[in-house]
């Protein structure tokens, strides 16, 4: 016999679904708002870099469209991009080599003070960049360490502040891998390292991609630490943008900013494709 539902009960069931439209609409509205908030500043910079006049009161569309800024300052843009890559790529490699064993240890080992160690590892993600910059400035420039060329100094400093961005996603991913899989490989005669490379590492590819992208983005976008440690002697993309706006060359700053955005996105896409296609495991 079919159950009979009273009109009041039916209304109480259907009511929340009808009333939930406003709540459901919040998600696409907030998503569109966030996307616009992210896209508008780069679009304004793009308009500035290809416009002879940039005035928001007259609209955001270019007035007198031309690409002279990119042609005129192409050498400065290429030089800044090369300097950024010279720092960012070694930083990513060092963060990968240092961060992977640390992430594995924090995910698998149990020891006293582990929670505190994790918090210490995460500190560079929490501290304001200017605070880290002043601290590293005192460390590298006070004579506490041997003097190094600006490039090596920046690579070391960027590695310190960027490695946590590699450790965090790897640690969370390793925690989701069943330890029994590693134990099974050990029981079949594989060494601990072989078991990690052949069993665990393939499962960490998404986390590796995330760590590589975050580490690269952190390094290539850094201004405070780079400027404090190298000044104008080593002009990466952020430093070049700052110097351009400081000297009143807004179009150069906008052009370098746009070129840097395109450059960084392209490098991250290429790195993701390389890691996905590689069969090193």
TrEMBL record:
It is found in: Cell inner membrane; Cell membrane. The keyword Repeat does not apply. Its main location: membrane. Keywords: Cell inner membrane, Cell membrane, Membrane, Transmembrane, Transmembrane helix, Transport. Residues 81-275 form the ABC transmembrane type-1 domain. It comes from the Bacteria. It is a multi-pass membrane protein. InterPro entries: MetI-like (IPR000515), MetI-like_sf (IPR035906). The chain crosses the membrane at residues 26-48, 83-107, 119-140, 152-174, 195-217, 252-275. Gene3D superfamilies: MetI-like. Pfam families: BPD_transp_1 (PF00528). Belongs to the binding-protein-dependent transport system permease family. This is ABC transporter permease subunit.
